Amino acid sequence: MPQHCAAYFCANRRTIASRTRGITFHKFPKDKHVRKKWEVALRRDGFTASDSSVLCCEHFKQSDLDKTGQIVRLRDGVIPSVFSFPVHLQKLERLMKVKCSPKTQKKK
Ligand SMILES: [Zn+2]
């Protein structure tokens, strides 16, 4: 069975077709704390990542990906941040951003 991206509303699977489209899949981090952050970022109720869970590259910012090598890697400690959530969850996100963003937003 092809691996499926674990993100909400994402239909990407690990297939030859997705590979030719340049979609890469990334396993959940082994580090418990970082993995927890990924699970929280996904916002799927009751979801727990397994060792075979993957996310596709569409949920990461370009700057989170290291494309210098032959395979695309994630930079250390990166948290997925690009999701298309249902509307009610997006509203929640906006509220949360207002409350707690200034510190976490870094601009070059
Ligand atoms: Zn995905």
How would you sum up this structure, described in words?
Keywords: DNA-binding, Metal-binding, Zinc, Zinc-finger. Residues 1-83 form the THAP-type domain. One of its GO terms (molecular function) is zinc ion binding. It comes from Gasterosteus aculeatus aculeatus. The chain has 108 residues and is of the alpha+beta class. The protein has one domain. The protein contains 3 helices and 4 strands. The protein has helices spanning 16-20, 32-42, 87-100; strands at residues 25-27, 54-56, 65-66, 73-74. The strands form 2 sheets. The protein has a two-stranded antiparallel sheet with strand order 1-2. Strands 3-4 form a two-stranded antiparallel ribbon. The longest helix is centred in the C-terminal third of the chain and has 14 residues, at 87-100. It is globular. The N and C termini lie far apart (42 Å). The mean pLDDT is 85. Bound molecules: zinc ion (ZN). Zinc ion (ZN) binds next to strand 2. Residues 5, 7, 10, 12, 55-56, 58-59 line the site of zinc ion.
Question: Secondary-structure element order, as H and E?
Answer: HEHEEEH
Indicate the percent of residues in helices: 25-40%
Largest sheet geometry: 2 strands, antiparallel
Average predicted local confidence, pLDDT: 85
- Name the ligand types: zinc ion
Low-confidence stretches: none
**Net shape:** globular
The number of E-state strands comes to: 4
Going across the biggest sheet, name each strand in turn: 1-2
Organism: Gasterosteus aculeatus aculeatus
Protein name: THAP-type domain-containing protein
Domain THAP-type: 1-83
Keywords: DNA-binding, Metal-binding, Zinc, Zinc-finger
